[in-house]
Amino acid sequence: MEEAERRAAVVLSFEITSLRIPIAEILPLKQLSPAAVRSVKYAQIAASIAEVGIIEPPVLIRDQQ
Asked: In this structure, is residue 13 part of a structural domain?
């Protein structure tokens, strides 16, 4: 199989270009339960973000509407 044919056979599951999206435009897939927000793990993640920030950008999926 030639290189062009092999590339054509692979369907990308992500977009090629990067976008900057304002936080206010990002909607969660689901709401966290009050118990999850009170959990130790949630507190650890929140403390880590407060301390060092977000190292890797979050992955977002377009709404298909």
From this structure: no
Cα–Cα distance for residue pair 50/30, rounded to 1 Å: 23
Q: Are 29 and 63 contacting, i.e. CB atoms less than 8 angstroms apart? A: no
pTM: 0.56
Residue 46 lies in domain: 32-56
The model's pLDDT over 12-59, given as tens digits with 9 standing for 90+, comes to 777 788 888 888 888 888 899 999 999 999 999 999 999 999 898 888
How far is residue 16's CA from residue 30's CA, in Å, rounded to a whole number?
27
> How many structural domains does the chain have?
1
